[in-house]
Amino acid sequence: MRNLKGKSVFIALVIMVCFSSVFYCEASALTEQIFVTVKVNDKCIKMDTQPYIKDGRTYVSVRFVAEALGSKVDWVGEQNKVLISSEEKEEEVIDDSSETVTSAVYADESEVIQLVIGSNELIAYGEKKQMDVAPELVNGRTMIPIRFVSENLDCDVKWDELTYSVSIYKEGVVVPEELIENRWYTDEDLLWLARIIHVEVKGLSINGKVAVANVVLNRVKSPQFPNTVYDVIFASGQFPPVKKPGFKELVPSKECFIAAKMALNGINNVEDCLFFNNVPFKSNNITLYQRIDGEYFYRKK
């Protein structure tokens, strides 16, 4: 009888452990993704191939940046060559957006920048130059280091390593409407979101940081909460750290900006969760969704 009772207790404990592992499991790890913002004269530029960082250099699509700056860009397919110009002269080329032969218009050689995929040599307005790295072809787009833009397209370039943002300025340029990306969030939203991540979970992994960012963004979308990032984090009784001195001047860490950008660009590891805490909640209105880095994330029932 005693042995049977002991076995029953053991089985009950096993069941409890199994259910605990289901409800209190840690989230699978996210891969950190860096989203680079590119602006020309304060306008975010829309690109079909995203900028990226490689060996400490930020690469951007030469076509979208050059066209935003008012230049003409064409692709000579047989030579793997890109021509950037502002003055015109007729020549037959292959358009890199359609793979069809088109009649393009070019400047003479002294008014053209020539780039060849895989070659460190470029010809800028008739003068041969050496780049420290060669242009790369990614998803059919020619990608170049941002340094090339500042040195050859007559503009000022600023790199913000904290927010991973490139700001390009050229006097007199009006960016074509079709090249402007109408982001749903502002730079201020990014900053406030990074700040709340910093004060709430700065010591957590990228998983925890992105999860907290998404709780804020889920609240922005919910009719139960204010509809801006600022108003959500400053709502009465919601995020106590915002009351501390210096919060409004806080400079978040680079990792917090990365997490904020990931969430703002649609990476969500907590679905529709609206609450989190470092100890379990007890409420009839919420249910535990997941535990991440020791933080408990809840959704409405």
Can you give a write-up of this model?
The chain folds into two domains: 143 residues, Copper Amine Oxidase, Chain A, domain 1, CATH 3.30.457; 116 residues, Arc Repressor Mutant, subunit A (Orthogonal Bundle). The protein has a five-stranded antiparallel sheet, covered by helices on one side. A four-stranded mixed sheet has the order 2-1-15-14, with helices on one face. Strands 3-4-13-12 form a four-stranded antiparallel sheet. The chain has seven helices and 18 strands. Helix content is 28%, strand content 27%. β9 and β10 form a beta hairpin. The protein is of the alpha+beta class and 301 residues long.
CATH superfamily of the largest domain: Copper amine oxidase-like, N-terminal domain
Q: What is the general shape?
A: elongated
Helix/strand structural class: alpha+beta
Strand ordering within the main sheet: 5-6-9-10-11
**Number of helical regions:** 7
Which radius of gyration do the C-alpha atoms yield?
Answer: 26 Å
Known CATH architecture of the largest domain: 2-Layer Sandwich
CATH topology-level name of the largest domain: Copper Amine Oxidase, Chain A, domain 1
Number of domains: 2
- CATH secondary-structure class of the largest domain: Alpha Beta
Could you give a short description of this structure?
By secondary structure, the chain is of the alpha+beta class.
